Amino acid sequence: MHKLMRIIFLVLFVASFGFAASAQEGGGILIGTNFGGDPTNMNPLISNNTVELALNEFLFPSLYNIDPETRAPMKAGRNDQDNGLALDWTISDDGLVYTFTLRDDLTWNDGAPVTAFDYKFTFDALASGETSSPRTDVLQSVESVEAVDATTLVVTLKLASCRVIEELDDFGILPQHIIEPMLDGNYAEIDNLEYNKNPNVTAGVFNFGALVPDQQTSLIRNENYWMDVSPEGYIIRNVPDQIVGIEQFLVGEVNSVGTAGSASVPAVQMQDFRDRAEAGEFQIYEYVDDGLTFVGFNLADRGNPVNGNDDDGNPMDQGKHPLFGDVRVRQAVAQAVNYTDIIEGAAEGEAVQVNSFGTPALWGYDSSIEPWEYNPEAALALLAEAGFVDDDDDPSSPLVATEDALYAEPGTPFAFELLTNSGNLVREAAGTVIQDQLGQIGIEVDFQTQEFGALVQFLLGQDFDAIMIGFTNLDQDTDARNVFTPVGDLVGGGFNFVSYRNDRVTELYDEALALPGCSFEGRQALYHEISRILHEDLPWWWLFAPFSMYAEANSVQNWMPYAEIRYANMADIAISP
Amino acid sequence: MLKSKTGVSTIEADQMLRSRSLSQLALIRLASDKLSMAAIAVLLLLTLLSVGAPLITSILGVDPNTTNAAEAKHLPVFSAGHILGTDNLGRDHLSRLLYAGQVSLLIGFLSGTLALVVGVTLGILTGYLGGILDDILYWIITTLNSIPVLVLLIVISTIFQPDAGTLIFSLVLLIWTLTCRLVRGETLSIRSREYIVSAKAIGASDARIMLVHILPNIFSVTIINLAIIIGNVILIESALSFLGLGVQPPTATWGNMLSKSREFFKVAPHLVFFPGVLISTVVLCLYIIGDGLRDAFDPTAKD
Amino acid sequence: MLKYIIRRLVQSIPIFFGITLLSYFLLWLAPGDPIIRLYFAPNIKAERRAELRAQLGVDDPFHIQYLRWLTGDDWLRWDSDSDGIADQAFELFTQLDTNGDGIPELPGSNYGILRGDFGDSFVRKKPVMEIIAAAIPATLELSITALFLAMVLGIPIGVISAVKKGSLFDNVARVLAVVINAVPNFWLGLILILIFGVYLGFVPLGGRCGLTLTGECPPILQRWQYLVLPAIVLAGADLANFSRYLRTSTLEVLSQDYIRTAKAKGLSQRQIDFRHAFRNALIPFATLLGPILTNLWAGATVIETVFAWPGLGRVFFNAAIQQDYPVVMGIVIISAIATILGLMLSDILYVIIDPRIRLT
Fold this sequence. Notes:
The complex is a heterotrimer. By secondary structure, chain A is an alpha+beta fold. Chain A is about 30% helix and about 20% strand. In chain A, strands 11, 12, 13, 14, 17, 18, 19 and 20 form an 8-stranded mixed beta sheet that branches. Chain A has a 4-stranded mixed beta sheet with strand order 1-10-9-8, covered by helices on one side. A 4-stranded antiparallel beta sheet of chain A has the order 4-5-7-6, with helices on one face. In chain A, a hairpin with a 2-residue loop joins β6 and β7. Chain A is globular, with a radius of gyration of 26 Å. Chain B is mainly alpha-helical. Chain B has helices spanning about 5-30, 35-50, 55-60, 70, 95-130, 130-145, 150-160, 165-190, 195-200, 205-240, 255-260, 270-295, 300. The longest helix of chain B has about 35 residues, at about 95-130.
């Protein structure tokens, strides 16, 4: 502790003479940059934004470790540094009971052991439904969680689910002995704990240090961790302007661009970063991001949004969107834009086109499917077949519907509204290119940006023609029943906001989720089949998945990055002066 | 009281003559101020270029919305076919600047002028008539003035997504008070002057007094003010864009072009340079004109 | 003097209410369900949502919500001995039913803004006043430095410009003053960061305190480098305004009778310039000071974002984009109060500097 104090004084001292030196001579302090807002809630049940999730990772224990290479669940006890509890687990023959055996050598930083009871407490809080936790997927299939003793955890399911193992690890574990006394038996209190702003009792590589609003958040080495921790601490500096943040990295005021949870090298600078890294100025690591940009076509009547199924599970009549109700129209649109232009314009060329749901980084993604290609003639032919023609030989006026159109009144011009959220330069650029290129074949796009909250209301309310958004931090499991089956088609709250229904797809999702034994190859084959159907059906029009780049100063030693896992070995990292 | 027809016209004629000659004198003085004339010329030129954007772009054979990101993005200045280069989507930068100028200048001039009309009307009315109306107006003015314009605009812009129309509307709503306060003050001081009192004494109607006697006398104050307000509005629009709250794309303004292109300052510095220079130039011209007008109307301040 | 101050304070009461009315009205106009905005979680239960609606009183009519915001809801029942039971003596008041639904309200825990309670931040879950108080030191540090720079440089430049009217100095100063005002300040800030931070390495690229694990902020003299650029950019516009005002008013004073008299009495040019002209030229300057003092933080919103300066402007902006209305309104109202006081201060200064003006 004294050593730490000395170093802090040293930092203060150095800071008073040379600002540039302070970061470099911090003696083992890792410094990252956060371009978003401050973390406001570090409770692992509630936390929401990337910086909060990044902090959770270093503060709270989890049910099991993740293999950084495959991102599959991994039993503890191998050469890993994480604080996952599970040494081993078994699954009953019917797939409904999971029994976990936990390690007993992990302690909270106040000395209390981390036990199965802590996990049960955290799960029960989530299951109460009184918190505003977003991590409720797990509740769909889990019946109960019981702690038999400190090291034995039994999970009972309502229905067999192959992704439950992943969902059980969706949240970090809270210290029951600290949190429970604060609640007065009322789980709703979890939302408003003082602990959420100052999680003083944790069990990770680091302890929570301090949050200075709009300036920095710091983590300090946990001296009582189960293994030796090398870095003194981790400071996340708040920099509102990304341009300035990048320059701070380049002049050496900070060690890394972004935080543990975000890569943040802008696409336009990636080539420059590659060149400089090659010249030895700093270290980089690149991967295909799991963030996905797509356009969702509303397949149903936007004037009268209804749920996919009624309360008894019977299909409801949702009407048809005059344009996008016809699959040929969607396929024509997908062939009417030049993907090279979109990727160059929106992502400076630093992205790959994707063919169906998911990104190449996920195991359920079928890379063998050929993505849609730019073919304006084919698009026009398909549109003519679907009953949309150029009636006046004026390329600047939109195509109009003829008698042949399935759902549009004859004479309806081919014009639609494309929405995205304001402030996202990538989507603004992609939308602008789409607007221009569709305009060239006679499709009039009214491209608008909406403030995010307003956009979400249009989206969940299913009141839109086409909407461009993105998914990030997709689960490793490719199951997407909530997105592409009528179960998720709920006006005002469901993720199947495009009202997609294909009974074969629903069947395949159900089968893949409950596949006996959950064999990896078996499930993968089913998801690949789904991918092929979705690729043809185009309820979403998949655009691209961007590249991500971590950049770390040369002073950061023993750095072991993986896709989506920036610091796989935080405890070993050393920052040289 | 007896009305003397000749008397009224004498006073009015004298008054009108005085004000006209004052404005004429001011104009003559302004015309001899080379700096102001240069500023007016530059401003006129930029306005003409923006208004003539469709013509100019069709002559040059470019279009502000045609994208070509795969082959022609970030082209530098003086590239073939693109005099000022292209942006990150391969769109012609010059034509975008011209079209963006239409929006930026429209926001500046329209909200400035509308605010002036509202401010002058209310200022003269309440300043001259006084009474409870004046008290209420004064209350509204002081209330609005005690919150900085940018602060209220940020609040309004986060609540209502701004396009050019709503931005102009909210600007007018916030800045009319600046002119109004000034006009009201001037009116109050003019109201008690001799010629107004005598005009009243011989039975001139209130409307006539306000239109014929007061309005010409506050002309100089408001016109100086107008130039500076328009300049400030253009700056405020760019500051809002920087914060991500200005006019939203795809509509381009100089402000959002400048703030968006920050990201590309290394690969395409011209994208940052031109919008910034255009904003600064226009605002600079407006300030110089404002200064020049003040000197022209108030010769004591100059020499 | 005291009477004058009291009168001014009384006069500002309606303005204060105007501001509260305006800001509450804007919030009330905001579209969308406040509960959804606040607790965006599709899984939130209907009962919980209804409970929150009732708790926040979002369904009450405007004037009730406004009054409750002003005066709080703790007084809905009188409980003088804090035993949780309403006093019998105040039976009449215990049955208050402000929203007219036939059920008397339970006392809440809000004191209302009139008693300095702006509620809790939606996002940070902390009292608004605490959040504002935490940001004020940084704001004061930046704005006072900027004001100091603007005065120390602006006043002499203005006076010298006037005294040496038409000289090269005068012309350069006047042109620069206009140019500084005309450049968007975030643009200027970024350019200065690139030049002085990145290329020359003279100053750090933003921030306020340097980075430490404990988050402590060293005394200002040890971290003055962080303050230089933002203060200069923030001072820029005011510096220009100061020098322009000072120039104009000094010119006016120099042409007045008593200066000529002083000259006739044989005082040297220099004595006249700085003793007489300066003091009298300060008079209009006093009127300028009030608005500038209070506008400093608003102008700082943009500059604080560029320079990562953790002041009130950034707290305000973050709250605005996160739709954290209690914080937004807290800052708007507190800054409006500061403006009113600032204007009053400048009027008082006016009186002190210029003895010819009598208090009325």
